[in-house]
Amino acid sequence: MSEFEQTRPEKNSKFSFVDSILFQNPTLLAVSLSAFAAYTGIGMVVPVRVLYAESRGASLAIISAMASAYLISNFVFQYPVGWLADRWGRKPVMIVGLLLQAVLSAAYLWITDPILFVVLRFVEGIAGATLLPPARALIVDTVPDGRRGEAYGLFGAFFNAGFLLGPGIGGLLAATGYTTAFLGAVAFRLVAFVLVLIMVPNVVRSTLTTETQSSAISYRALFTLPLIAAYIIAFGDYLYLGFDLTLTPLWMHDHLGASVVIIGIAYIAWAIPSTFLSPLTGRLVDRTRRRSWLILTFGLAQVPIYIVYGLANVALLVVVLFAVHGAVYAFVQPAIDAHVAASSASNVRARVQGLYSTFGLIGAFVGASGFNPLYIINFRLPLFTMGLAYGVCLFMGGMIIRLTETRSLT
Hints:
mainly alpha, 17 helices, globular, disordered N terminus
């Protein structure tokens, strides 16, 4: 064990970026900066993509098909991308994916047929599967278990900072025209590409496997009870992603009277507390013997927030709720990330990350396709349904994690 791997956060130490693991681990710093740049680009088009497609003649059915196409391809390619990252290396997968994302962002500007938006979103789903599984696997590769909560908290802070900056810039740029928002997305994807190319080491399978290298991978290692619990939570958590990809801009614009700038500000409001709290909550996760109580307490606290979303009549209330939601969510995600990392065998890390995202994307697909009929009946129904379904999944998964902690299976 290296000197770095023996490092543990002192129980009475206060968090500071100077002594944090971020500056002790160059790989974590590189991955975090790359995620920040990439998701700034992604965030720039979040408030405008649906409205842009609508301005080009896309109906609600086409917009729903766009989200479904993205989620289906992203779902299908999560595990293959994880397999490639385990066999080929994390870095090459990320490089190819970021270049493809940049090209696809520019392609929006030449589309005039709304049907082509569906095709483009399908290809974007493939490209979107190439970043997070390898990046999250790199964190597991290089960070010891006792500090993974802090590491994932910091990674989440950079990830959320991208969404903090991206939608705000995209919303402001879109006020003068949608074109500049998409060009900005291209630029930030290229920045992420350069960061990965220069700073991220190429970790390949031969450096990850242990004495079990010559043995075949058992698929039981991908579906242990602790991992199944995380997959259930991911399904419920990603229901909102399906709603967000199809309905959030329409809900806020058409029913709450929000402009595209206000929609961008709402995303910023969610990201600010999450960005600043995630490093702190990550350290809290590392010092907590039972992660299940964090997951259950702060996970179930989100259920009434979804209910109030459904009751809201003005955009300002939603902006405030987004800020509260981001703060609460900051306590949950690092705990789940650390739980998944601790439950993953060394030679299937990227595949586990891919499966974790895959089950989440199944939830997102259910949300994208299932919430539209409810939205047509009444725009409040998807939000009420989402809160109830998330609460059920969170409770089931959290209780299974609690059981595995009691039995020392994690």
